[in-house]
Amino acid sequence: MGKGKNCLSCRTVLWILVFCGFGMNYMLRINLNLAIVAMVVPRLQSAASLQCGTQKNISHTTIFTTTIAPSQNVKDQRMINSRISSISQFEDRFQWNEYEQSLALGSYYWLHWLSQLPGGLLARRYGTKVIFGWANLITALLGLIIPVATSYHLSALIFLRVIQGLVAGVSWPAMHGMTAKWIPPQERSKFVSSYLGSSVGAAITYPLCALVISWFDWQSAFYVTSILGIIWFCFWQFLVFDSPDQHPRISMTERSYILENLSETNQEKKIPWKAIVTSGPLWIVIVAHFGGSWGFLTMMTQAPSYFNYIHGWDVNAAGVLSGLPHILRMMFSYGFGVLGDWLLRTKRMSLTNVRKLATFMCTILQGFLTLGLSYSGCFSTLAIIFMMTGTAVNGAVSAGTLAALVDLSSNYASVILGFCNLITAAAGYISPFVVGLLTNNNQTIERWRLVFIISAILLILSGIIFILFGTSVEQSWNNYRSEEREENAEEMKKLRSKSNLQNHVNEKEQLSKRNEEKA
Q: CB 85: neighbour CB atoms within 10 A?
C-alpha cells in the first residue's frame, strides 16, 4: 500500500477484515445451534406429520434434535418398541430435553452482557486491535475444548459457553471506537455493514457444520470453526491498526482525507457518565435495538430447531435453510448502506430520517414478517419465505440503530455501544429460556406460534418508539471536555476581570490616601 500505488485503500482492507472478524465471531457463537441437532437423541415424527397429516416419518439416518419424550400419539406397543429401538441406535447422543437444550443454547448470553461496557472502555484504553482480535482468538481456543467438555457433562458445556460469551462480549462495542477513528460520517452506513459479516458467518456456519457433521461427527463442527478463527487472527494482527496515524503503509492522500473529514476526536479519558446514562435519545436507540436483537436472535438461534421439530427436516436441510437467510441479510445490509449514504450525500433525507427508515425496516417490517412466520403453520414453503425475508430486512440495522449510536457520539461510540449492549444482550438468554418454557415436551405448531408472536410484538413496538422519538443529532455531551474547558476558560476570564477590577479599586484607594496625607 505504498504512496500512490494502492490497490486497496486501508479503509477497504479494514472493511474486509472487520467483515471476516464478525463472521468468525458469529461462527463461534452459533455453531452449537446446528450441532445440537446432531448431539441429541432424535424423535420419530415431526410436528407437521402429526398435526398436519403429512406422514413424514423420520428415518434412522436422519438427525433430529430432542430426546424421545412421552407422546400422546403412541397407541400400541409396536410404536413403543420402535422408539426404544431408535434410542439404542443413538447411544453416542445425549438425552437432553428441550429445557436442557435451551440452557445450552442460551448459556452463551448469560454473562455476555457483563463484558459489553468493559469492552468499550478497554478499547479506549488498549485499542480495538487488541480487544477485538484477542476476544475472537480466546473464544476460538475455548471452542477447541468443547467436544471433550461436553462428553464429560452438560454442565461443562454450559460453563465453556458462558466463558465464551463473556470473552466475546467485548467485540461489538470495541469496534465502534475504531469506526469513529477511521470512517468519515458520510461513509459510516456502508462501513458499518461490515458488522453484518456476522450474517455471512451465520450463513456459512450452518451448512458448513452440517457438512462436516455428515462427513465426520458433531465434534468436528467445533474444531473447524475454531481453526478458522485462529487463521483470521493472524491476518488481523498484521494488517489492522487502531488509527490512520498508526498505520505504517497508508498513503498520505488517504490519511489526509480521513483526518480532514472526521470531527475532532476527544482523546480525554474522562467520560460524561451522568450525561450518557440520562440521555433520552440514547435510551430510545437502546429500546429499538433491544426489540431488533430479540427478533433477530430468536430467528437465528431457533431456526434449526424450528424446522427440525415442526417440518421434520434433517440436519443438512436445516443447515442450508437456516444459513441462506443470513446471506440475504448481508446483501440487504450493504445495499441499504449504499442507499443511506446516497440519500445523505444528495441531501434527499436528513441523517435522522435515514436512520428511522432503516430502523423501520429492521423492526416494524421484520415484525410483520415474523408474524407471518407464526401463522405459516403446516405450510413449509411459506415458513421459508417469511423466515428468509424477515432475516434479510434485519440487515438494515447497520444503517439504523448501530449507526445511530456513532451519530449521537463519535467520541464515546464504543462506550455507548457497550452500555447499549449491556441491556440488549439480555435478549440473547431470555429468548431461549422463553422458547424452552413454551416448547418443553410440547413441540406443537401452536407453541411455536406463541414464540414468534412475542418476537413480532417486541419488534413492532420498539420500532414505533424509535420512529416517533428517535434522533441522530450529535449530543452536546459528545464534546464534554471541550465544553468543560470552555466553561473553565470563561470562569477564569471572569475571575481575572474581577481581580483586575479589584486591583483598580485598590489603586484608587491608595492614590486617594496619599493625596490626603500630602494635604
A: 10
